[in-house]
């Protein structure tokens, strides 16, 4: 989404702008499904393996804090990015919001993968 919007701004091409807009709608769906499934997964882990999750909590709190920060960054920036699409006068500022979404997404993916690799 970030690359498509960057190309739209750089080339002033409506095709890339439409592509970024439609991909951002799909990103909201992926985010919602990922949040719901991640919540269910966390509940299952704590219900079925409480002693193991106590160990995970003691060892992996650093990455969990990074995950919470990145999730909040993504959860705040993504709705602003999608729902205020047409309200930004300066499109480069809107693109900056997509960078915040991208950073939150990649940090979240990295820390979840890091914790799962350890487990």
Automatic annotation (TrEMBL):
InterPro entries for this protein: Cyt-d_ubiquinol_oxidase_su_1 (IPR002585)
GO molecular function terms listed in the Swiss-Prot or TrEMBL record: electron transfer activity; heme binding; metal ion binding; oxidoreductase activity, acting on diphenols and related substances as donors, oxygen as acceptor
Name of the protein described by the UniProt record: Cytochrome ubiquinol oxidase subunit I
Organism: Ferroplasma acidiphilum
Entry-linked Pfam families: Cyt_bd_oxida_I
UniProt keyword list: Cell membrane, Electron transport, Heme, Iron, Membrane, Metal-binding, Transmembrane, Transmembrane helix, Transport
Protein's GO biological process: aerobic electron transport chain
Transmembrane segments: 26-52, 64-84, 96-118
Broad class of where this protein is predominantly found: membrane
Membrane topology designation: Multi-pass membrane protein
């Amino acid at each position: 989404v970030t690359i498509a919007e960057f190309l739209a701004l750089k080339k002033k091409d409506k095709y890339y702008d439409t592509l970024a807009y439609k991909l951002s709608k799909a990103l909201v769906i992926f985010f919602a499904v990922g949040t719901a499934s991640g919540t269910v997964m966390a509940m299952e882990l704590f219900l079925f393996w409480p002693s193991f999750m106590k160990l995970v909590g003691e060892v992996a709190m650093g990455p969990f804090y990074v995950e919470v920060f990145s999730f909040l960054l993504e959860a705040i920036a993504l709705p602003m990015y999608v729902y205020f699409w047409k309200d930004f006068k300066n499109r480069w500022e809107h693109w900056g919001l997509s960078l915040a979404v991208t950073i939150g997404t990649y940090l979240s993916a990295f820390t979840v993968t890091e914790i799962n690799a350890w487990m």
